[in-house]
Design a protein that fits this description.
This protein is of the alpha+beta class. 30% of the residues lie in helices and 15% in strands. It contains 14 helices and ten strands. Bound molecules: protoporphyrin IX containing FE.
Amino acid sequence: METNKKKLTTASGIPYAENENSMTVGPRGPILLQDFILHEKMAHFNRERIPERVVHAKGSGAYGTFTVTHDISKYTRAKLFNTIGKETKTFLRFSTVGGEKGSADTERDPRGFALKFYTEEGNWDLVGNNTPVFFIKDPKKFGDFIHTQKRDPYTNCKSATMMWDFWSLNPESLHQVTILMSDRGTPYGYRHMDGFGSHTFSMINANNERHWVKFHFKTEQGIKNFTDEEAGAMRGTNPDFAQHDLLTHIDKGDFPKWKLKIQVMTEEQAKTYKWNPFDLTKVWPHADFPLIDVGVLELNQNPDNYFAHVEQSAFAPAHVVDGVGYSPDKMLQGRLLSYPDAHRHRLGGNYEQIPVNRCPFAVNNYQRDGQMRVDGNHGSGPNYFPNSFDDIVADESYKEPAWDLGTGLADWYDRNAEGENDHYTQPGNLYRLMTEEAKYDLVKNIVHSMSGIDGPKKELITNRQLCHWFRADIGLGMAIAKGLQVDMDEAMKNMAVHA
Ligand code: HEM
């Protein structure tokens, strides 16, 4: 039968005559092995799942445009920043952290803010969160920490006991825990929150001079959070609230925007600043390092297929472009190795050829072959370096200036040794900055969460954490202790033990 309609085909393009009935020996007989399409359909279905991200499994993403609004060429030679008005295509994936791919969007959790800039000198991934700090400051603790945010190995349930046990044993977490327990821990979707590069990075200018920088994305939609109760209710009514909110606003042309700003510190300032500038549990107060305008990020295109673009996107903090560099932040250093390793496991060795991850500009190297090599494999060109046939060279002009960090001997240094162990001033300052209403919500949320601590170590864990709140701010500690109905004499004794 001739028809103008598109023909149903096998994956190899062969038109197929029958798609709903398997071929059988007689109407009630067994199925014939030669019904190849039946096998192809079942076999492909069985292979639809790929590993979900080990963290940040639930997410939403969109394409957008970054536009330069201010000249920062005195800090960076990065081509994407070199002209006011210059536009660079981007892809941004938001996420929660601890939940599985099907978990609710309004869980109390930090939110991922992973941004890919498709620049003319390669893809730059700025893989940040909606918070300027993190729970730990050494990558060796990351796996242990994440285990406490996931499911208990026995109950297979989330466990307040595990979380508060880890946090109370790692007081460097207090700053991030204070943010997490405030209403910033339950943002109203992804459009109404800020994003942060969080780590200290570097910028290198045309004179090969280095500055240390922090990246901030300020929401133009205004900050809006759920209260604990609202977030809990939304988990039941629309677990995909943030996905739906982002998608529908972009679909109707209400494009969300963020202003990119940076903080800048000179190498000289870094040597003497009161806080270790490479400690991810600390901020650089704006009073000391004011925000400098850079540009605007706008999300303006929903991907037409979630799996192809959002699920297969892969971001790596190691991927920086000329003019932007790393810093000695130990967490950043650990992440440089971890992400491409995770992508090779999750998506395969050629993950950078998947369209959402592919650099739209030239990619020249001698990496060849491997599963799912789909880009032509560099054709008949030579597959070794150096060679006498092509004219591909390593360009020394991209070299960064050497680092003079005066860091001393190689050893396992305690991240919380004398001089690095003030985990209390910044969270205390943050609390004291809050409005009375925000203070009330923070205490209520902490009391709610800490009430979940259970089991034989309940008292030990509760008192150990209370001791940290007291050290941050006596009023905060008192309010939480009151909410938890803790015996204050016991708590004070405990404070003496842990002091
Ligand atoms: C995702 C490791 C700290 C933000 C991931 C993934 C791994 C990982 C393995 C999954 C990657 C994938 O399968 O695609 C680590 C390690 C850390 C660390 C080892 C510490 C040493 C951080 C910090 C931030 C962060 C400090 C934010 C400042 C993210 C984000 C994603 C992610 C946003 C999701 C990226 C996406 O949307 O695909 N992390 N992480 N991580 N991480 Fe981390």
